[in-house]
Design brief:
It contains eleven helices and eight strands. It is α/β, with parallel strands linked by helices and about 220 residues long. It has a single domain (about 1-215), classed as TIM Barrel, CATH 3.20.20.70. The protein has an eight-stranded parallel barrel, surrounded by seven helices. Helix 6 links the parallel strand 5 and strand 6 (about 130). Helix 8 packs parallel to helix 9. The longest helix has 16 residues, at about 200-215. It is globular and about 75 Å long. It starts with a strand and ends with a helix. The structure holds erythose-4-phosphate (E4P).
């Protein structure tokens, strides 16, 4: 049961790490753009900083979509730090690249997974992680959780080592359901992680304990 944070924001990454529950980080080009990180040098430096904050796996996504381009970027990214996992899109060239990178000992996260068939191909190519996008499936009136369950079951049938990384998490319930169904990892925004803390009875109970504690003061 591993928690990754899904952001490129250093402050949020540090906050989640300081909580003591963080196992890794995922990013994507949209999250890097949101932090206004521009240019290959700045992007690579940003990944280096993230890897220095978090010792666990840090997914860094390639921008290329052709085989040679994916390999070139993946090798550069993998050189940044030992805990980099190269994120590769679920396309034909991506699957070929994942097979090559796996053979070279470079770990990968196959992203943009929306079907069990895609997850099967990614596992066969040797991906370290597959990232099914729950929230985006929910947005299309399908249940993203059905996909998590399906992939978990298929991988279990064959003892497939590829880990199921539930992505596109939008709320705390997505986290709970993903773990309930056997996802190995959940990557989520900080708000969703902190949302797990909340329960009104905890707040009511704590207020009562604090009020009673006052009564015990000499
Ligand atoms: C994670 O690896 C994905 O990039 C991310 O979870 C996508 O989330 P979104 O659908 O909220 O953009």
């Amino acid at each position: 049961m591993k928690f990754f944070i899904d952001t490129a924001n250093l402050h949020q990454i540090q906050q989640a790490y300081d909580l003591g529950i963080l196992d890794g980080v995922t990013t994507n080009p949209s999250l890097m753009a949101k932090e206004n990180i521009k240019g290959e040098k700045a992007i690579y430096q940003h990944y280096k900083t993230i890897c220095e904050i978090v010792p666990g796996d840090v997914s860094a996504e390639v921008f290329a979509t052709d085989y040679e381009g994916i390999i070139r970027e993946a090798e550069l990214l993998a050189d940044i730090a030992d805990n980099i996992v190269v994120k590769v899109p679920m396309i034909k060239e991506g699957i070929r690249a994942i097979r090559y990178l796996t053979n070279q000992g470079i770990r990968t996260n196959c992203t943009l997974i929306f079907s069990a068939g895609q997850a099967i191909l990614a596992a066969k190519a040797g991906a370290t992680y597959v990232s099914p996008f729950i929230g985006r499936i929910d947005d299309t009136n399908w249940d993203g959780m059905d996909l998590i369950e399906q992939i978990v079951n298929i991988y279990a049938n064959y003892g497939t080592p590829t880990e199921v990384l539930a992505a596109s998490i939008r709320n705390p319930l997505h986290i709970i359901r993903s773990f309930e169904l056997g996802a190995d990892v959940v990557t989520c925004p900080l708000d969703s992680i902190l949302g797990l803390l909340k329960h009104p009875l905890t707040d009511i109970g704590l207020s009562k304990f604090l009020a009673d504690a006052e009564k015990t003061k000499a």
